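idk why but the lab printer keeps eating my pages so im just putting this in chat instead. protein + zinc ion:
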Amino acid sequence: MSHPTLLITGARLADGEVRDLLLEGGRLADPAGAPADVTTLDADGLMALPGLVDLHTHLREPGREDAETVRSGTLAAARGGYTAVLAMANTNPVTDTAEAAEHVAALGRRDGSAQVVPVGAVTKGLAGEQLAELGLMHRSAAEVRVFSDDGHCVHDSRLMRRALEYVRAFDGVIAQHAQDPRLAGPDACCHEGEVSGRLGLGGWPAVAESTIVARDVQLARLTRSRLHVCHVSTAESVEVLRWAKAQGVAVTAEVTPHHLLLTTDAVLGYDPTYKVNPPLRPDEHVQALRQALADGTIDAVGTDHAPHARHDKEHAFADAAFGMVGLESALGVVVEAMVQTGLLGWGDLVARMSSTPARIAGLADQGRPLAVGEPANVVLVDPTRRSTVDAADTLSLSRNNPYSGLTLPDPVEATFWQGRCTYRR
Ligand SMILES: NC(=O)N[C@@H](CC(=O)O)C(=O)O
Ligand SMILES: [Zn+2]
Ligand SMILES: [Zn+2]
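predcted complex ->
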């Protein structure tokens, strides 16, 4: 890969300092040493932040290249300000072997506009019965550190305990899709409450999530291993996480942008765009999630970008696929929900969307401060720009965008990954 030299002038960092940044050889260099004829980008009025890191992306390749590919998904990621994404294992074939993980990493190197980090499955075929080759995936060239059966919960307690024990040896982490399959029955497709009753949709009680979180944090304490909770969506889960962190349990958690902004009311029109797992929750949960992300009980934002082809999504609500896209809109939605409301400053936003996710995933070259010598992973943002979201205006192959028609912050102006421009408005 070529590493063009670029001088970005007058960018404001998250701490308020205004600086020039020299991108040279894929790293940040001292701007005083910029060649006289260097290409410059005037960043007056813009902020420069470390490239964002997404702990939770569905790239759909291999297997569902009609919904997304590594190429299209990472183009969408770059447009969202991301320089790294963790690619969930629920592809076809499932990422449950060293070879499969290396294949995803190789696709990333070939087609990626961001670093593609394969997540390994916890169980073979995501079937929840036998542990996958966790050690082999870790020791492979893909160096898998994060394991998840996302889309499915590792609901067998003994298997979950063994998975946690296993990854402890190499400081791995089990990322759990917390959902009790008995409490959230096969027809569950909407938060259990007033709206599900009114619409006659299968209800999904909040405790289907929090009871698994409560079990898992105790297993993490028992095994002294690391647990990460995917897409936390309820106030009850937040309470459990707060308790677990106070006990010193090695647990981290993420929340999606959509669970920070949208509520159950979005499904009142039976539009399957708003059908997602876990479901959109009532406002009291949204407020609890915002508070938890602000105070650090929830450590990070994970998009759960879940692209779906039209023919899987355009069905009656009960029959449509679960999931919504999120990479391109994530920063704008988080700014709307957290910064505009005064809950989070830009410095903490960088922690939640870049440095902390990088630390959770063990990515040494991501989420680093914008200092000389560090990798040139940079996103330039216009903190004041807003625009009306149009689902058709996307680099993703899918259109299941829940923000279409809403006017939201639209901050990302340019993204640089290892010094290379991967997106420019
Ligand atoms: N979030 C979703 O609604 N769907 C995800 C699976 C998941 O994240 O559980 C998908 O793969 O489509
Ligand atoms: Zn999930
Ligand atoms: Zn997911």
